[in-house]
Write the structure tokens for this entry.
Amino acid sequence: MPTLSTSKRRVPLAIHSFRRALGVNRFETFQHRRKRLEAAALNTIAPISSLPPEILCHIFLFYASTSPLHGLGWLAVTHVIHHWRAVALACPELWANLILHRKLMPMMLVRSKEASLIIRVDLNYRTDLASRHIRENIARVGVLDVRGSQHALDAFFVDHVGKSSAPRLRSLSVVNLTTAGDPLWLDARVFHSAEKRMGHIPRQLRLEKCALPWNSPWYSNLTNLHLADFHKAHSPTITMLLSVIISSPRLQHLTLINTQTRVDGLDRSFPFALRDLRSIRVSEPISVCAQILMNLTFPSVVAVDVCCLPAPAFPETHGSLVDTVLCHRDFCQTYNFLRIDAPTRDCFRIDTSSYLTDKTLRIEIHYGARPPSLGPALNNLVKYSNIFFSRITTLHVNTVALGNDSWRHLRKCRNLATLTLQTIDPLPILTLLLECAMRCIGVSVRPEFEVDIDLNGVRRQLFPELRCIELNDIDCGNPYPSPTDVLRSLLWARRTGRCPIPRVRVAACKNVFQQDLDYLRFLTNSFFRDGVGQNPGEKEDGGYIDVRSFSLNVFEHLHISRIY
């Protein structure tokens, strides 16, 4: 029977194939690897034919919530096997995800029984059908997601639903698809029930290119608040915006994107703690970002995404605002991964994540016409939190704005295991590593060089736990000494000092000579190269007969050239 063979299929392990392709396993901790293997084992012992109805219902509901607005969407899951269909028919909450189809609507309303309805509709399609069914069943609607042109939204809220009351409505999303025109204001008490007890039900609100008056009862007791792309006429003051936020003490997810917020003098006492907040996303001028972060705390935050745009009105305080954003006390936690990028010349981005707590932090700061400089910001970060760099095990750097002053602060990453250098000049950090490694084996050219010393008075390597160096999109053909010359010398010095770096990866680099590849393979336990950018010419190594002589000459030449 065909249905039987289908029911015995296992869930494919596609995600693990992607992990292998992306090389994610290189950065796995033991705990993460164990979780991944346990998840893979569950796929082999739990075929879909044996999943309990409760689990299948959750899967179906999740699929229904992510289905496209048009077409039959999630309805296909009810026509796969008899077991799936029986579970789907017995789940009223699934049929409450209405598909706006003339023939399906009556049947779905019956099968949903008394469950709160979930309606997601684009008013640019089938406006009359959608408006009529929403108006007739507004008392049962629990989730309403409407989008469309400004004309369609005006007609829907004014002509069709008007002053209708929706006592079950717990989630309202309105997205205006018109890119230009007059501001779209919604009625302050739209769908608002006259019953006082309804004001205590946790709700979710999403507004894009439209707004409710700032005294609307919708701006209270929210668990999810999403405000984006406001018209200038919608613009609140920072006091009004913060008042809206703190009126929802149980807020869990906060998104603010281009709300046109104006900075004014605060007339309330802050800071205020949002103890249940799990994620925050802010894309505003840096002056607004700084005010929000100065006046709110997030003890339980897990995901942070802050994009600070230029603030022309505050050019003289830009540096202090950067410190305010980076050094927020709830951001300066213990992380394992740190990535520093400069996607363009006028901005830089910092990404961090933690293996143990799954916390992620992403801060992007745009400087406008000013070139970014990370040194002062990292210096203040070190002063504010000594533990920020202490647990970093993976560092990915992709910015020319990282000079010697910045690297001096990044030396605090004492547990660093993987260092990736992408599209930058790697000589400053490689030279710093080489000088420290040479000092540890008794070779020095400047006595004032700073070196770490342990409790026994023994010199310590810079990044003593370093196990992998990766060069990505680097030009290795610079004049002598080139990045690969310094890397070869570094590998020899670390091996001589009994603190070897066993793995090296070279990807998408240019002007890579065969001599460099041979020495890198010899000096490491594991060497990887993608085969791109090899220079077929012969490299002049100076005629040195051994690695030691070559390394000492490179080190001496670096000192003479004053590279560091």
